[in-house]
Model the fold of this input.
Amino acid sequence: MFLIVLLVAWEAAYRIIGWESWKFPSLFQTIESFYTGFAHGQLLEAIMNSLRRLLIAFAISISVGMLLGFMFAKWKAIDDTIGFVVIALQTVPSIAWLPFAIIWFGFNDKSVIFITALGATWTMAIATRTGIKNISPIYIRAAQTLGTGNGWKMFMQILIPGSFPHLITGVRVAWAFAWRALVAGELIANGAGLGQLLQDGRGLGDTALMLNVVIIIAVLGTISDHFCFKKLEDKLLIRYGLDK
Amino acid sequence: MINVDNVNKIFTQRDGNTFQALDNVDFSIKKGEFVSLLGPSGCGKSTVLNLIAGFDKSYEGHIKVNGAEVKEPGPDRVVVFQEHGLFPWLTVLENVAFGLKQKGIGKKERLELAREQIRTVHLSKFADRYPHELSGGMKQRAAIARALVMDPQILLMDEPFAALDEQTRLVLHQELEDIWLKTGKTILFITHNIREAVMLSDRVLVMSTRPGTIKKEFNVQAARPRDSADSLLHHVEKAIMECLADELEKVVKEEMGDDTYSLKKNSVFDRTFGGMGGGI
Ligand SMILES: Nc1ncnc2c1ncn2[C@@H]1O[C@H](COP(=O)(O)OP(=O)(O)OP(=O)(O)O)[C@@H](O)[C@H]1O
Ligand SMILES: [Mg+2]
Done:
């Protein structure tokens, strides 16, 4: 409902204010461009390319982040040294590393994946560390007394599930970070993708295309967060008896 | 079976000061015996249990189980905690089967064994629930089932019923005595409830505080299964109460501060004895 009001207001404003379409597109131009974009496969291809990069980067950052976080939680010496650095690094927007990435990897996929993974990794590491540290010692002791020992069994069966409520929040935030970094990275570095399409739109003065990309980014971001992670999180919280 | 040999335990606190929690604690428990460790809050009961369980290795003296020095926690001495300690991400059934899984028992067999054990604590209807969906008494029962299913020689129970209401506690006392009579396990039971200790145990070790040490030991030679109306139990209960009256005064003084405390020893004694569970 609200969406319809918004769309009507948009078209009305366009006509009343009389923007020229090279500044901001009208509703119909946007819909038309959306249609041709998909018909020519250009939009879909860009989405696929961006998602591919995102998933690669995401997989890297989740595994590396969890490994780091686990080490921080387990060894105080690492926590006091590398852990501190990571907290500092977390405050740097990952796009700030893009110039370095370009020097190291060139104008290509790797640079984009690198900075996409970077921001998410730190977040994930810190979430994992917090999650493990917050596991009540009674679970650890109960597990020991039931014969898990302190190695792999403990890690898989207690540390991971025990820190899940924190982990899933970490994954959500990491996803949001990665998504942002990805689009920013694609804008600057080369490679077909949504960010690149935005750049192309600007070059061609095609504001309808640009707006389309923005909308797609918003929709994809919302869908993934709301229907994937949020659902999963809610389900977990209920199962853990944490929802209030 | 369990030998605790002149054990001293000193905690180093965060500010660097040391605190002697246990002073020359020395006792042993025979195979198949049900022994309670009784004492006021903070006297070091949990500390003793944690050492026997193997959670903490920094102490002086020797602790032996079956003649071998305790090195680490293990399934031969399963602990039942005051706060149940069930894993919230597993159902009751999965919780009970958890220890069997660590032993490497196949899925089908371990679920079967777990179900059977859950039946003995009367939780069959709740096997597929998550811990937060159970009442306090049910959780405690599930925790006991999780320990029993391991068929350990020794059960270490740290105030397992302290958080429960009186009725539930009485029911669980009977269930525990039943299980013990059937299985003949060696049980070290920690409590600060005098009646509970007397009702359940063959022997009650009374601890005194600051530093924690075994003050006196009482044999309870009443017939099994125990009958709460048994005059022998009341007799022992009274004797323990007297033994603890001094301790009680010490604790109250310490926790309330010396100046506010002006009750006479006898009045404290009378009130506690008249009260419900005879707790300290
Ligand atoms: N990790 C620790 N560091 C410092 N002091 C500790 C530590 N753990 C326990 N203590 C102290 O040792 C004493 C004994 O504690 P313990 O937990 O064994 O008492 P308890 O007899 O089990 O009491 P309760 O009945 O309340 O459970 C207490 O005075 C406590 O403050
Ligand atoms: Mg205790």
Q: What stands out?
A: Residues 82-151 of chain B form one domain. The first helix of chain B runs from residue 45 to 53. Chain B has two domains: 2-76+154-226, 82-151.
